[in-house]
Design goal:
The chain is mainly alpha-helical and 184 residues long. The chain has 11 helices and no strands. The structure holds heme C (HEC) (2 copies).
Amino acid sequence: MRTAHSRVLAAFATPVLKGLILAALLACSPAQAQHGPAVGPLPGGEGSDIVGVVCTQCHAPNAFTQLRQGPSAWRAQVHDMILRGAQVGPAEIEPVVKYLATHFGPGINVPAALLPGRLPEGAGRDLVEQNCGLCHAMDRIASARHSAREWDAIMARMTVLGQPAAGDEARRITAYLNEHFGAR
Ligand code: HEC
Ligand code: HEC
């Protein structure tokens, strides 16, 4: 099997880049190498070397650096990408998932473009902004009207993606959503 380093080299076409990357890799002490270098816009850390290569072959990194979701949603995404042809070996799946969930999980360095914004005042607004603002802006919520059944389905999907509110808090959120963004 090819190593992550030879993959880094194979993934970049120009000799100049290869030289630069090789120099950067050689400069890494073993401890740093294990940690993984920053790759382009991707923060360094365990797994960055694999992700920097295998996840940038078909689309730019911002296809995933602009998303925030929890480990089970990232795992599903990685499996989906494997079905589309991403070269992630069985032993690499968990390191890749861990890297993605660590650097692009709920509430982690949420990009400015995704920053929450404010919703109309009302009971439950703070809960919505706190929990739903971990991954995306409020316009995503305010941009459409949904029936109660649709909001239930959206809440269920957001929970799988990693939204943390449960029990009474989740009920208060759903009540707010139905009151302000319910189908008319
Ligand atoms: C073999 C090509 C290929 C590779 C390699 C690949 N992807 Fe994708 N990816 C796609 C395609 C095609 C789409 C668009 C799918 C769609 O529109 O439904 C996509 C879409 C995505 C999306 C959704 C973007 C959005 O705006 O909704 C994410 C997130 C994503 N990829 C993450 C990854 C990650 C993480 C990796 C590395 C494990 C990866 N991709 C590797 C082909 C690839
Ligand atoms: C862990 C990250 C995360 C959290 C937290 C989160 N979402 Fe999302 N949300 C996403 C992602 C990723 C998408 C786009 C993919 C999708 O629609 O499944 C999305 C899309 C949406 C959409 C558009 C989907 C549609 O079908 O119109 C709505 C509405 C939404 N979220 C509402 C919420 C609400 C309400 C909350 C809080 C209870 C919330 N989200 C919390 C990740 C999150």
